[in-house]
Amino acid sequence: MLGALFPLIYVGKAEIKSWPLIGVMADFSGTLFIDRKRKNHIAAYIQEIAETLAGGVNVLFFPEGTSTNGETLLPFKAAFFEAPLAAGAVIIPVSLVYTLLDGRPVDKNNRDRVYWYGGMTFFGHFFKLLSHRSLD
C-alpha cells in the first residue's frame, strides 16, 4: 500500500528472496535483502541503504523487524536509523492501521484475517486475505 503512494524500495529479510513468485517480484523491484543471521554484516547493510538514500531513492523499512497482531508497538531495532542519518535523508514515520474488513471493524475476532504475524505462513494468510471484498 505504501508503494502505491510514492516510489520506494523495501528492506526485507533474505528469506523472502526464495519465496515462490513473491521473491522474484521483490528482487525485481530492487528490495534490499537483509540476512538476519549475519549480524556481522550490519554495517554493510547500513552503508547500502545510505547509498541508496543518497541516490534519491525512498527506502522503506519496518524498525520493529517483524510484524504483529496490531495490539502493541514492539521495540525498534535502532541500527537501520543510522542509514538515513548518514545520508542526510528525511525520516518519515508511518503507522499502518486497518479499520474495516468487509465493512466491519477490525477487532480481536477478525484481526488474524488482516495481520500476518507469529507462526502464520505467508501464503496461507495471503490467500485468506484475498478472499475478502475490502480492507480499509
Describe the protein in words:
A hairpin with a 2-residue loop joins β4 (100-101) and β5 (104-105). 29% of the residues lie in helices and 10% in strands. With 136 residues, the chain is of the alpha/beta class. It has five helices and five strands, in the order αβαβαβαββα. The protein is globular, with a radius of gyration of 16 Å.
Mean pLDDT: 91
Give the radius of gyration. 16 Å
Task: Assign the structural class, choosing from mainly alpha, mainly beta, alpha/beta, alpha+beta, or little secondary structure.
Answer: alpha/beta
Spans where pLDDT lies below 50 across 5 or more residues: none
Number of strands: 5
Number of DSSP helices?
5
What fraction strand?
A: 5-15%
Helix content: 25-40%
- How is the largest sheet built, in terms of strand order? 2-1-3
Q: Could you give a short account of the major beta sheet? A: 3 strands, parallel
Q: What distance lies between the first and last C-alpha atoms, to the nearest angstrom?
A: 11 Å
| Overall geometric form | globular
The succession of helices and strands, N to C, reads: HEHEHEHEEH
